[in-house]
Amino acid sequence: MVGTLPGRTQGLGLITEPLLADLHMDRVTYATVNLWATLIGAAFCLPYGRLLDRFGSRLVLSMVALGLGISVVAMRSVESVAAIFICITLTRGFGQSALSVVSLALVGKWFAKRLNFAMGIYSLLVGVGFIIAFPAVGAAVLNFGWRAAWTGVGTFLLLVLVPLAWIFVRDVPGKDDLEQEPFRLSDLTMWEALRSPAFWIFALSSSVFGLVYSGISLFNESILAERGFDASVYHTVLVVSTMLGLLANFGGGWLATRWPIQRVAGLGMAVLAAALVALPLVKTYAHVMLYGIAMGIAGGVVTVVFFSVWGQVFGRTHLGRIQGCAQMMTVLASAVGPLLLAQTLRQTGSYDLMFNGLAVVVVFLGIAAWYCPMPGQNLAPAFSHE
After folding, report:
1. DSSP string covering 324-342, please?
2. What is the largest CA-CA distance in the chain?
């Protein structure tokens, strides 16, 4: 999952400003390129989810990592809008879409009754990886330029991640590893999942979070600059929110073993709404840090929910396809987020209108998640303390 960095909005956010200056692009053009690249890249989710269910994790993960590494290395040579569009499309498709689906399914196909706790640990490890990766890549961008930094990231994917995937990944758990008792009485097919309200409530909640997070991540430096803060504050907030996200990952995984997953989702959305309402009011360094803390907590909790809910609610047999559908929705939303913020800034001179409007949507989805019925399950608890 850490290898998806160059295909994620947060990763692209690290090179946005120098890339715009290098290619002489305005923000709306870049946001539009990002939108269409992400929309096309989202199409990678469905076929790779199907391939994962059919051919297993080892082969699919190795090929996806190979494609992402080649795409990132190729991006260092871009000189035109068309070239940057092709490269961002491929990094979005192989990274944000396909590699995310495969990474999540590795855990979802392995665990059943302990899935929430396993996903909490997984999220914690992913957070640690991003805490190392973000400042490292950010420092490389500042010291060596975005092209050299991207070459290093792509080389790491090709020389480290691809061999690790091929050597160590097993397609299915061994007999000693596999949990014998299924979490559900029966697994749902992709179409049965799509007909349930639970799929749409959780998918929309995760997608709106992705929309918010992608828009803020891509233009976070600009958002904070609008309030009088420089790039160093942006990097500090990124680290603070990521660290708090780590704790929230673990806390969310622990809480999900004691609360129904709907309640955990509602709590995460409530914190996100509070952060959105507070962002236009930020004026001091302390305010910025509090905003970063709230975003980190919200992101950590919502991430654990998104990671674990599909296998927990719908089973493992068709998990790749189901997660592919859900991941595609979040990718599409993440494509729209930056363009909405860029257009809001162009039309109103500020980002604030968008933040306030999104807060209302988040509150509505949080309430829907809190009261969401689960297909074929009692809302009363199916969480054993192991």
Report:
1. HHHHHHHHHHHHHHHHHHH
2. 60
Burial label, 253 (beta-carbon count in 10 A; 0-12, 13-18, 19+): buried
209/269 Cα distance (integer angstroms): 8
Q: Which two tokens stand for residue 102?
A: 């495969």
Give me the pLDDT at residue 113, please.
66
pTM above 0.90, yes or no: no
**Residue 292, Cα to own-chain centre: how many angstroms?**
17
Tell me the CATH number at 195.
Answer: 1.20.1250.20
Angle at alpha carbon of residue 27, lines to 26 and 31, rounded to 5°: 125
Residue 257 lies in a domain: yes
The token duo for 340 is 């909405």
191 alpha-carbon distance from chain centroid:
24
Query: Within a domain: residue 380?
Result: no
pLDDT digits (tens, 9 = 90+) for 195-227: 888 889 898 998 898 888 877 776 777 777 777
For 354-364, the pLDDT digits (tens) are 888 889 999 99
Q: Which domain holds residue 328?
A: 2-171+183-370
Q: Cβ(94)–Cβ(161) under 8 Å?
A: no
Token digits for 125? 């490890």
